[in-house]
Fold this protein.
Amino acid sequence: MIKIGEYNTLEILRDTDPGLYLGDTEENVVLLPHRYKPEHWEIGDMLEVFVYLDYEERPVATTLTPYIFLNEFGYLHCSDVNEYGAYMDWGVQKQLFVPFKEQARPMKVGSWYIVYMYMDEQTNRLVGSSKTNKFVSNDTVSVEKFDEVDILVTHLTEKGANAIVNGKHHGLIYIDDIFEDIRTGDRIKAFVKKVRDDNKIDLVLQAPGYRSIEPNANFILDELKAAGGFLPLHDKSAPEEIKNLLGLSKKSFKKAIGSLYKDKQIVLKEDGIELI
């Protein structure tokens, strides 16, 4: 079965005027237009292609890399709005349609939005929705404390950075735990700091507790080497100084230099730390 909105590995069956016809083991076929043909190919070769629906809602293959996949979230640019809805650039030739009823707020040309792509059962076509809360839930949480997770930052508030966790759950990085520049649309790794009794997920960008000591220590070693062996920071430095120079909290910094000092890799001085 050829899957719409996903990558498929298909066999090159024949070359025609419109392009290459590709097929699966169940004799389903799809066209790969000439403009997407690889430079070198032979009948019988296997190709990995993305399959979506063209302007006539027929399956078509491409070697372009889409920005979003079926039943997943993406951060997309609105390229057009008409009387039916909005159209998003998602990396392939045909734009992704977001009907007005699926817009969390009216979309504007030139703006960017977090969008979920799904197959509309009534029309059998790929559509998008910016009403992302419909597609995530914390009723049953599949992550635990200390887990490394993939997150998509959805929006920033005074409280912190809201994110979608592993494409399934809501999560939040509190403002006090943000020590680097993050923005809406960023896809990054994070760690589960806590799963609360109400299933709300607290996130951090560095491994919490003792697990963060080693990577932070290695990071500080790299910064020391890049700075010629000395950094003007110590355990009495202001948190703002540490954050501005290293992007770490003072607590994480003190844990890391304590580990380095214990391992006799640095010397603690009144005006900073020095590499041995």
User: Anything to note?
Assistant: The first strand starts at residue 6 and ends at 15.
